Amino acid sequence: MAVGRINSLGVGSGVLSYDVIDKLREADEKSMIRPIERKMEQNVEKQTALAEIKTLVSAIRTPTKILADYSSYLGRTTNVNSDAIKATVASGVPMQDIKVDVHQLAQGDINEVGGKFESRDSVFSENDVSLSFYTQGRTYKIDIKGGMSVGDVAQLVTDETNGEVTGIIMKTGGSKPYQLMLNSKGMGDQSRIYFGTVLSANIPSSAMDLGDDDLTLQLTDKNGNEQSLSIKLKTDGSGDSALALKEAIREAIESNSELKDLLDTEINVGLDKDGKGLVINDLRGYGISATGAQASSLGFGSGQAKQEPLIESGQMVKEGKLSGVVMIGSVPLDLAKMTKDKNTSEQNAQIIAQAIENIAGMHASTDGSGKLTLSSEVGEIKISAQDEAGKQAIESIGLKSGTIQSYAKLQDSLFKIKNIQRGQDSLISYNGAQISRPTNEINDVVGGVSMSLQSTTEPGKPAIISIGRDDANIIEQVKEFVKAYNELVPKLNETTRYDEDTSIAGVFNGVSDIRTIRSSLNSLISYSELVDGKLASLVNYGITLNDKGVMFLDESMLTSAISADPKAAEEFFYGKDKQEVSGRETHIDGVFAKIDKFLATLADGSNSRLEAFGSSLERDAKALQKDKKSATELLDTRYETMASRFAAYDSQIAKTKNAFGSVQMMIDQSVAKK
């Protein structure tokens, strides 16, 4: 009851009690509330069953959506018959066999510099020295101060090159275990570090036809004698011009008995500037020249790489009359006797240069700016002063005291540069053409194919990348479809059944939105079409239904059918484009495309059939809740009124009974007197 009980109800009458009211209310609730509650229970059951069906429809749609997607038939598999290459391919790459010869792998440049050192703090050089090298199209000059530690030199190289060349101290063992290493940051020919003299050229990509006197290189042999090499080459411009010229130069060097032993040790030839440039290098520091009718057009410019001068003064020679004595080796130069008050800087520079030129084995020049350039045939110049005036004199002509040695001299005594690993491009052959890349990850030779080079191949035994169709994914999705179908259909049967013997009906018996799903789905599964005079259906791919509606799959039959004619399988599963008489192309859906579209009408979006049906159940649930509340409130009001009336009736009955009791007592007393 919605109202509080009146404790005395029924006391007066002995009849109008709450037991009577409760029995009356129970009868009303059975006729008014219980039917609504049964409908609410059925609604909950329907919503639960619908949620299960939606989940099962979603499960079967997962494979059908994939099988209805064209990209699923573009999947590819790769198989490589060699450990030399790992390969991956993108979807849609034509099925083919790709033969690749791997001649060399890309690697970085590693160089030993200097001798062995006792510790990282050991002094690299007692004197100021400069170490120059060329890499990545740029020349770096590292000024190493006398007394600088090996560790400091390593860090200086790294800092000066912004990490393009890394200075590393390696511990190799022994009494002097530490070794300075200069390593390239990246891999490939263009990451090589060239010490000594460098002649570089930007090679045009056009065809080349080099005959006699078109390109001649002058290099220094192991005996210090100059050798001339005539480079011969003919290309059609379709290949890599810089690579072709590099190989032609290497071949010419290898053919010269006085030079061949120096190749890749003292004399180096490499690619530069993303493979479009060429570098010729002499580690010893000897000059290199390129001459000939086509030298300039090939990008060699001046065609000369000279030995570096020993000294290039950092400032102009002072003007006017100078004083002090400068010692060049053992020869004194008295500047007071050589210069005049009104001399310009350039005039003084020319006078001093001429005086040094007159010293045996010494050479000096000025470029017109008043600065001096000095060199020595013995690779060494010693500049000193006998007194304080001499020190000022050295400063006045832009030089500095000390023994300055040439690169060649320092290479023998200090640098001792040794290449441990030569930076090189990977080199492969594909379709008869040689291709180089500064990496072992190559993805721009065959469209959609990425190759990772692991090792070189044996001559005549190329790595074969076999690209095939990825049927495994299609087969797996068909298996998932069969599995999902066999989970969905029993649920549909259970919820839409009607047993005539027991009159038991499923929760969705009579609901057409649910009842027609199985028949519509089976109709699509039974789809067939005439292809080349033969009837094609899912039965041809091993998919069958028994009389109980259970789907079976013969996987071996499916695999064989797809392997035998993958294009036919694609067209039957996904669909095909057909050109009409008008010339317009139309797409005809395959069986799984049809099934997927049907399933989309069931569960895709708020307007789909199952979603709409679910919304109607939710509306019904809310309406039933409202009906139950209204009926309950009606009964509460009715029986609250009834309780009040019963209380009034009970009071009247009690009064009547009390009055009747008094009369009865008087009667009883009268009878007793008689």
TrEMBL record:
This is Flagellar filament capping protein FliD. Keywords: Cell projection, Cilium, Flagellum.
